[in-house]
Design goal:
Layout (H helix, E strand, L loop, with lengths): L3 H10 L1 H7 L3 H4 L6 H13 L21 H10 L2 H5 L2 H6 L3 H21 L3 H15 L10 H4 L12 H18 L16 H8 L3 H27 L4 H111 L12 E4 L2 E4 H12 L11
Antiparallel strand pairs: 1-2
Helix pairs in contact: 1-11, 8-9, 8-12
Length: 393
């Protein structure tokens, strides 16, 4: 591949030819109406970083036009201006290297067609010998630019002199000769494998177009390399990053250890929770049983309260009856006592209205005394320590 300095030299040496033979490049290649060229301008602007201003502006032509044959045909119509840049004398100065590349590509294409069609080797050899004349680069017809056809106006620059043009052509020949020097074999150690469609596309391209594409690819590769170098230079130091990575790894190990501990604790908590849930279910069932028993007890208590109320009513009625009976008994007792006194007075002829005769008195141990005193005398007799003298009548 060619070096960037060689490409720049060839570009500078061909400026005089472009001024004389090429129409306005700003209108033909970078016109706003041409969408493909607009894309090329955007690609060039994306690669046009600070420090890469040496790249030739023609690098803005996109290589994506070489992908399909239809796009290639359209591109060739707009890129015919390249044929004006490369002269037959430049191709002659290139030597046989460019022709060898072209013949090699053509040979591979013929081999692909032979494998696909299964034709005889003799017929392919005859076809190759008949088409050998087409393999050589066609002579480029010199086209005169539009600026030579129209009359010069006052104030327009004069065309370059023949001497200056001849010096530029010689410089272009020297640059291209240096590119294809006898010590530089660009086709050595290169193996190209193309499909049938790709071989047709490449075989339809003129060698000067291939050279221009190679130079463009080389320039873009250098630009991208410098851009990547600038980007990589802005990246942080790898040693600091390695230290941060080690710190993060330690933190990650500690976090994993803590996570394992928390997982163990969580397992124990889950076991305790399951046990507590079992106890809760047991207590809940026990509570339900107690609630049922409490309801039964409450029902029994209500029945007992009702029975107690009924018994209390009966007891009250019984007390009233007893009270009535006690009054009746006492009345009958007093009436019987006085009847006995009256009978005794009638029989034994004594006064029944004597005050000493009372229902509340009785004779104890030959002495007439009150019923209450009789109880005291009986208590004193059973307990000699207490001396009580009953009141005598």
């Amino acid at each position: 591949m060619s070096s960037p300095s060689t490409y720049c030299a060839s570009s500078r040496c061909s400026e005089s030819d472009e001024e004389r033979d090429i129409p306005d490049l700003s209108n033909s290649l970078t016109s706003p109406e041409d969408s493909d060229c607009a894309v090329g301008v955007e690609e060039y602007a994306a690669l046009h970083q600070p420090g890469y201003d040496w790249v030739d502006p023609r690098v803005k032509l996109p290589l994506s036009r070489l992908t399909r044959s239809a796009e290639l045909a359209a591109w060739r119509k707009r890129a015919d201006i390249i044929a004006d840049i490369v002269d037959e004398r430049i191709m002659a100065a290139a030597g046989g290297s460019g022709k060898d590349i072209y013949l090699e590509l053509r040979r591979k294409r013929m081999e692909e067609e032979k494998k696909k069609s299964g034709g005889s080797a003799g017929r392919m050899a005859a076809e190759g010998s008949s088409q050998r004349g087409d393999l050589l680069p066609l002579p480029v017809e010199k086209k005169r630019g539009k600026r030579h056809d129209r009359p010069s106006k006052p104030g327009t620059p004069r065309p370059p002199s023949p001497k200056k043009t001849r010096n530029a052509e010689e410089g272009g020949q020297d640059a291209l000769s240096a590119l294809f020097d006898s010590q530089l074999k660009i086709n050595e150690g290169i193996e190209v494998s193309l499909s049938l469609e790709e071989a047709e596309i490449v075989s339809a391209i003129r060698p000067e177009t291939v050279l221009y594409a190679l130079n463009e690819f080389q320039a873009r590769a250098v630009v991208m390399g410098r851009h990547l170098e600038t980007v990589l230079s802005k990246l942080p130091n790898s040693t600091r990053l390695s230290g941060e990575i080690q710190t993060l790894q330690r933190d990650l190990a500690e976090a994993n250890q803590r996570r394992q501990e928390v997982s163990l604790q969580l397992g124990s908590v889950k076991n305790e929770r399951s046990q507590l849930l079992g106890e809760r279910n047991t207590l809940k069932a026990r509570c339900k049983e107690l609630e049922m028993k409490a309801e039964e007890s409450q029902t029994a208590l209500e029945r007992l309260e009702e029975r107690l109320a009924a018994l209390q009513a009966k007891h009250t009625a019984a007390l009233e009856r007893i009270y009535e009976l006690e009054g009746y008994v006492m009345a009958q007792h007093e009436e019987g006592f006085y009847k006995a006194v009256r009978q005794t007075a009638h029989l034994f002829n004594f006064d029944a209205g004597d005050d000493r005769i009372s229902i509340e008195k009785d004779v104890y141990d030959g002495v007439l005394m009150s019923i209450d005193d009789i109880a005291s005398v009986k208590a004193a007799a059973s307990d000699p320590g207490k001396v009580s003298s009953p009141s005598s009548i």
